[in-house]
Amino acid sequence: IAARNKANGFYSNHHLSGNYWYNNSAYQNSTNFNMLNRPSRNDADNIDGPGYDHILKNNLAYKPYGFGSKNTANIDTSRNTLVTNSWQLNLSLSDSDFESLDIDLLTSPRKEDGSLPDIDFMKPASGSKIIDAGTDIGFEFFGKAPDLGALETNYVTGIKSFENTKPDNIYLYQNYPNPFNPVTIIKYSIPERSNISLTVYDILGNKVATLIDQRQNAGSYGVNFNPSSISGGLSSGVYFYTLKTDAALITKKLIYLK
User: Fold this and answer.
1) Dihedrals φ, ψ of 233, to 5°?
2) Is the pLDDT of residue 173 over 80?
3) Which residues pair with 187 in a beta bridge?
4) Is the torsion defined by CA of 120, 124, 8, 54 positive or negative?
5) CA 154 to CA 186: how far, in whole Å?
6) What is the DSSP annotation of the chain?
7) Given the DSSP bridges, would you call strands 237-244 and 55-57 parallel, antiparallel or unpaired?
8) Which candidate in 9, 11, 88, 164 could, as Cys together with 2 as Cys, close a disulfide (CB 3.0–4.6 Å)?
């Protein structure tokens, strides 16, 4: 995230070649994305030239600030690769597309226990046009496609089928993110209709949460796990989640950090 810089937010700074720019968020910089390159190593008198060979995907630029401000500069579409960046998509963004645009949040103090503060600066709000507007570039994401910018959201509630194809085996995937705070998503796949139990245990083997306990059709599913929703909450530490079907019992480890 680059915010409120008097010159450039993300800046190629006279590089002699292109760079990769993936899922960055820029807000109220004089130029949010400036891809200025140096045209040639051999021309000492000319260090300013349009950017070339850059690859920009899933970037978010909002409200450039100051005299002559603009979202982009020195980006020639014929010499760079641009994929699902906000300025290409005509999204007509407004402040309501974000949880917060309070820059002071970026200098918030740590919590009393020393952990990082919870910051919603530039986080897409529920229902925002930013959500699922990106392209899959290999990073983990929730929903149908990545969100634009630096912050990936997960507003999925309850159980959600995330694939239409029938799985060929039983899978319990590693939760993501891991370690996590406050919410993680657990995905699993079953190849045929089965009784399903998805349960979380502490390190001593005590059951702390039952996420799923029902009969389900073949398919792939995802469910949120939010320890703060459990009565009394959970302490930081290592926990285990277990998928039990009619044919298998699979366990994996997760780490909760408060």
Assistant:
1) 70, 180
2) yes
3) 222
4) positive
5) 12
6) -EES-SSEEEE-TTBSS--EEES-EEES-SEEEE--B-S-TT-TT---B-B-S-EEES-EEE---STT-EEEESB-TTTSEEES-HHHHT----GGGBSB--GGGGGPPPPTTSPPPP--BTPBPTT-TTTT-S---SS--SSSSPPSSS-------SEEEEE-SPPSS-EEPPPBSSSBSS-EEEEEEESS-EEEEEEEEETTS-EEEEEEEEEE-SEEEEEEE-GGGSTT---SEEEEEEEE-SS-EEEEEEEE--
7) unpaired
8) 9
What is the distance between the alpha carbons of residues 3 and 20, in angstroms, rounded to a whole number? 20
Tell me, letter by letter, the H, E, C secondary structure of 213-229.
EEEECCEEEEEEECHHH
Determine the Cα–Cα distance for residues 235 and 224; give it in Å rounded to an integer: 18
HSE of 246, CA atoms in CB hemisphere, 13 A: 11
CA distance 62 to 102: 13
Tokens of 70: 């603009």
Q: How far apart are CA 231 and CA 145, in angstroms?
A: 33
CA distance 152 to 25: 11
Report the distance separating Cα 254 and Cα 186, nearest Å: 10
pLDDT at 157: 44
pLDDT, tens digit, for every residue of 189-230? 999 989 999 999 999 999 999 999 998 888 889 999 999 878
In this predicted structure, the answer to whether residue 140 has a pLDDT above a threshold of 80 is no
Among 140, 145, 143, smallest CA distance to 180 is for 140
Peptide bond into 177 cis (omega under 30): yes
